[in-house]
Amino acid sequence: MDFSLSNEQRSWQMLARKFADEEIRPISLQCDAIDTPRETWTWDIIKKGSKLGFRTMAVPKKWGGQETDFVTQALVMTELAKADSAISKAFSQNWKWSHLISAACTEEQKQRFLTPFVADDTFVLGKGITEPGAGSDNRMPPADDPKPGLKLKAERSGDEWILNGEKAFIANAPVGKLFFIDARTDPTVPLKQGITMFLVPSDTPGFRIGKVFNKSGWRFYQNGEMIFENARVPHANVVGEVNGAVKKSGGGGGDTTGGDLFGDLELCANALGICDDACESALRYAKTATQGGEVLFVQQHVQLKINRMFAMTEALRSFVLRVAWEHDRRIHSHNAGLAMNYSCDAVQEVTELYMDIRGAQGGAMDHHADKLARDAFIWGHLAGDSVSRMKVTRRIQ
Amino acid sequence: MDFSLSNEQRSWQMLARKFADEEIRPISLQCDAIDTPRETWTWDIIKKGSKLGFRTMAVPKKWGGQETDFVTQALVMTELAKADSAISKAFSQNWKWSHLISAACTEEQKQRFLTPFVADDTFVLGKGITEPGAGSDNRMPPADDPKPGLKLKAERSGDEWILNGEKAFIANAPVGKLFFIDARTDPTVPLKQGITMFLVPSDTPGFRIGKVFNKSGWRFYQNGEMIFENARVPHANVVGEVNGAVKKSGGGGGDTTGGDLFGDLELCANALGICDDACESALRYAKTATQGGEVLFVQQHVQLKINRMFAMTEALRSFVLRVAWEHDRRIHSHNAGLAMNYSCDAVQEVTELYMDIRGAQGGAMDHHADKLARDAFIWGHLAGDSVSRMKVTRRIQ
Amino acid sequence: MYNLHLSAEQLEIRDTVRDFATREIKPVALKSDRLDVCDRRLPMQLLDQASQMGLRTLALSEDRGGAGADHLTCCIVTEELAAGDADIAAVLATTSWLGHLLIDRLMSDAQRERLLPKFTGDDRFHLAFAGHEADTDTRLGVNYHRPASAAAGVRTTAVKAGNEWVINGAKDYVANAPIAKLFAVLVEIAGQLKPKILLVPADAPGISVRAHDKAWPHGCGGDVAFKDCRVPADNLLGDDAAALLASIDAPGEGIPLFQALNLGIGRAAYDAALDYAHLRVQGGRPLIEHQAIGSKLAEMAIRLEVARATVWQAAWASDHPEAIADRSLPDLPLQTIAQVFTSEMMVKATKDAAEIFGAMGVMRDMPLQKYIHDARVCLHSGNGNSEAKLRLAEIIAGYRRPVQALAAE
Amino acid sequence: MYNLHLSAEQLEIRDTVRDFATREIKPVALKSDRLDVCDRRLPMQLLDQASQMGLRTLALSEDRGGAGADHLTCCIVTEELAAGDADIAAVLATTSWLGHLLIDRLMSDAQRERLLPKFTGDDRFHLAFAGHEADTDTRLGVNYHRPASAAAGVRTTAVKAGNEWVINGAKDYVANAPIAKLFAVLVEIAGQLKPKILLVPADAPGISVRAHDKAWPHGCGGDVAFKDCRVPADNLLGDDAAALLASIDAPGEGIPLFQALNLGIGRAAYDAALDYAHLRVQGGRPLIEHQAIGSKLAEMAIRLEVARATVWQAAWASDHPEAIADRSLPDLPLQTIAQVFTSEMMVKATKDAAEIFGAMGVMRDMPLQKYIHDARVCLHSGNGNSEAKLRLAEIIAGYRRPVQALAAE
Prior knowledge:
The complex is a heterotetramer, with 2 copies of chain A and 2 copies of chain C.
Chain A: H1 7-33, H2 43-51, H3 70-83, H4 85-104, H5 107-119, E1 125-128, H6 136-139, E2 153-157, E3 160-171, E4 178-184, E5 195-201, E6 207-212, E7 223-234, E8 238-239, H7 245-249, H8 258-288, E9 290-291, E10 294-295, H9 300-328, H10 335-358, E11 360-361, E12 364-365, H11 367-377, H12 379-382, H13 386-393
Parallel strand pairs in A: 1-4
Antiparallel strand pairs in A: 2-3, 3-7, 4-5, 5-8, 6-7, 9-10, 11-12
Helix pairs in contact in A: 1-3, 3-4, 3-8, 3-9, 4-8, 8-9, 8-10, 9-10, 10-11
Chain C: H1 8-29, H2 32-35, H3 44-52, H4 71-84, H5 86-106, H6 109-121, E1 126-130, E2 157-161, E3 164-175, E4 180-189, E5 196-201, E6 207-211, E7 221-232, H7 240-248, H8 257-279, E8 281-282, E9 285-286, H9 291-319, H10 322-325, H11 334-356, H12 367-379, H13 384-396, H14 403-408
Parallel strand pairs in C: 1-4, 2-4
Antiparallel strand pairs in C: 2-3, 3-7, 4-5, 6-7, 8-9
Helix pairs in contact in C: 1-4, 4-5, 4-8, 4-9, 5-8, 8-9, 8-11, 8-12, 9-11, 11-12, 11-13
């Protein structure tokens, strides 16, 4: 049993903390306040972070990345998220799919895509699964019905596949250069057996981005529609087997790729950053703001709220580190999923309590407290919805 | 970062699990069902456990103990508590005060008390702080008033001290052979400066045990009144300095002895055992009991409850292990207190959910589910009351 | 017109029963030996006293010797009794309510003439409804929002033999079973489409009662078995009886008597905590002057007042279905709403009350643990709140269970 | 006698306003550009329409041109309006309630003659109460259960100069400030023991209004400053005015108008979620047929119905203090109870509703995020629930704040 960090882990953590303090936090509320969803993203912070390795740190060294372990990745996500959860996610989303490239792509594909990805500070990755009519059905397809689930169609035509359909709510869609796209290649069989995954560059003919969604939280982190109208993708861009993609992306067999496992860790490590921010901010506020001539901290109800905030946060930190370590050891475990579900409860309760401690000042809520609660609400449909919880429960032996 | 256990830790854990499965669990519900509080305790299980080292495992090797680390102690408490929380506490209560002996007693005192303690399988320790009129006042004395707090009086008379007064709710009082007793030796000053700690053997003249309390939970673990009527204690039994005891026992300066720190860890490690029991029992029940011809587990609301139970439990386990490791490293931290507070919320919610999944069967609640909820309720006044939470909050920097 | 004034009679009976609970019930119910939830005997003498005060015949119409209390009044009385002792409240609520249903609404004149004097003339004449088939599971569960299997029909049968009915079968979860002198039994009669109700005296040949473990249900419950049990032919109630009794399933459904009982438990815990918070000094001040304790008491008060508003609304609504028809109240099962809400809130309230007592709050021979236990009984009674929410969800969804399935439940 | 029937008038006005909210308000309020909480402009045209329907003068007595609605009716109307849009509901509730207080209860005949025609004749004649001194903190906090410091007195002064009053000072948290045409201002007059109320037209010389950030309070609020602001001598209200207005502090305290508003927000979210759960198919079945979703909807329905029972009880009680005197209702601040309970429950309900929408539930241009935001505004309005619980705790404890401290608050 050893909770101490290696020198390398510690130095990544410190690097992230410095970058978060000096570069991210100063722009966080500004980016959040931008009204037009298409304008919340700024390349400047991505480029700066990329130069420090925060875009490519999950890429193996042999392909030019930093090949950090999961514990380091968790530490960095938390530090970045403590300054801005959405900006942290904008970086880690690239790790998620570079894990997938490592796990599922051929050497030729890695050569074609990882090399330019590593070389270009503005090369951002994404993955399209969800569609307007198919969200949870992709995660937990009904046992008794092959029809539900994604509908985007891919048909073979010589050396190419022709893609038609739409994706919705796709993270990084408006800014990404390369996407993994799940498409139905056999509509006659249940979802798990009829899906193929494709690598689709953003400049693919017939492929374009539609609206950018106007999210209430995570405003920096963009999320958009994808439209495929006879989009042509070379057969060489098929990831894994034809009709074999769901297994690889973790939808069915689950837990077989780093990419899927990473997704659970990512959400709980990021939530931890928000919790850290809320705890520190609440404590600082309680120890400086006054009420009746004394600092707010002397109020018993404030102390009790702060207690709950820190207790949940430290429980979450312990859990996140354990999950990261289990990933590094490739231990098969339901803990990553449980930690993700738990992080939803924790981040929402902690940010609500922070709001409560701030109270409405001068007729309005503090922008920072309001932002954290809006960011935390994102977890509700990503990490804490009933489908996600039931799916995790079914993994418990 | 390393969550793996050493061979020694793992072998203690396995030994505890075997003892819990084979010896404790078979008698747990029986002991709980005994109506007369004085009769719930059975020496047989204590002797068996003592022979395996579960009574003395916190005593340094040079005094004949096993000198296990805190991680091992946490693991063992959890395993024993998974079979019966009260019996686990009956063992670990001895570790708590053997930590205190190690930390605060002179070599001569250790010789006099640790040697017979180690040698006698029925030698059990306790500590008397709480009095009928002074519970929380001992833990958080008011800053502006010296009067509140314990009242038991000790007056010097030659080589002896004469003790008069009463203690209440003292764990192990009816079965212990040696007690640490906090007494007022200077009633004119605030509590923290006027308390002395004494070692009081159970056969001290003028000292006797009054009623045994009839607790709803933790029924095996006895809890009684202590009555001092001109009880005579040799000066050689003073622990530390006269008027200096509160500091040593952690009431004021806090966190300076192993004994006090251990108390926080003890409660959260024990709670974890109850949670483990509840989780496993709930899952087993859900996968075997049927409703409408299908196992209960197919119900979505059951899956969601099980999810919450396991998520809270695994978060708690991660937190407990972290706290134990911090103790082994002697890291100054508020985490132990936070974990204790958190364990109260977790153990109560998890046991309530277990009850919920069982439902009332045949017009009555399952005895096991009912027992776990009653045991868990004990945490409310030991680990989760507002005084305890505020005290921990004030440690956060 | 919307009006929350209680009548003079309601105020008076509340005072009377509160006084009875304080002076007579509590000294017996809170004696440390009776607090032991594992060994709670029904205080028959207090039940006799309550009967003499008219509480056993509370809902029976006035011209038949009862108090003719409406549903709201019955709930008010049940809360007050339960603040003294939940078992007493449960027994009386069951008998009083069944007394009204059976005698005022279901018996023929001949039946009434025969049974009314027995009922009113004997303080220990309690009633029970044996409706639930032993070992059947009526939960919706996975069948939520889909037709239920019709497996769970009425399996207790009655066969005509000369001038008698011969009953065979078994019922469980029968409230008041161990003390009832008369049972209303739901039976299937071959050749008849719908189930019927037979009145079975406790001394009928062939009936046997097994009392439940006393620790869990409030009052006293048990299983009832019928083995060639014979009752006179004219013990059969009219065609409406089964529907009326079976649709309410158990006394207290439809009208929130057991939610009022639950409220009484919570109030007793709150009152105890409030007293103690005034008395107990800590940090140089009474507990109540500490912010953390004051806030906890305020939360308890909020839960109690809100729950009471909900219970009273449901009680009144069950007497005034026309208020749902005219849209003054929503077309929702208000008693189910009161059940889920009250049972969850009262567990919280009793636990918070106990925590204010510190170590004394965990003692089995002190009232607080009894209150927690009693509140948990309410939380887990029947099929529990998860099931109650599903039943509510079906109604919200506008789903109509097929009649066949309904009959089978 | 206890009676939950709404009157024919109440049922009718509820239908009328619900219809107005559905047909007129929602199409405007739920347009995606207005959903952006950071840029919500008050829809003045809808406020005009509402005024023409009589909703601005709802509480004003009938013989003065209002609808003479009682408190319960005002709450019913406010809920319905808020189900359409919380801002509209807030503005109208404030003006309607102040209209009744000022015109029906506080003005002299001469004052009324002067101001009533202006009020009734102008659809945009809104009212505001400027009571709270800028930058003062009236929370109990650590002074819970101990005498408060008297620091927080009325610091806005009025001095007689010829036939005029000259006002100096500043008020904050003034609801309706940016649109009010008449302010009731709490002032200190040298030599007088108690504070007084002066009526100040929005166009009086020396008054200035700074509107608040629109994202947070419902309706529109602002700060009001007075710099040698002059009003005619006969704009002074009688001695009772300050006590009546100051004791309620802000319109909507005492009578649970803003809790009814909160309820409307929750109901709108619930209705939206229920519709969506019927429409959206997942796993081959509408969402509502999934146990987990059905249970969530049932929990929301329970919260709504329980909260409404609590709000209506408080509304009726605020019109019927005699029901507290005769012990039909408890002697507790029922509006505070409704506030704490409703605000906590509606945040839960709106969040649960949004989660049913999945990714659509987090979008800023969809109604669900607006509902969550609006519910949070209620949760954190005023001094928050922790403070409300302390005020309740004092009353539970039987603690009486010294008069001096009360006056200072």
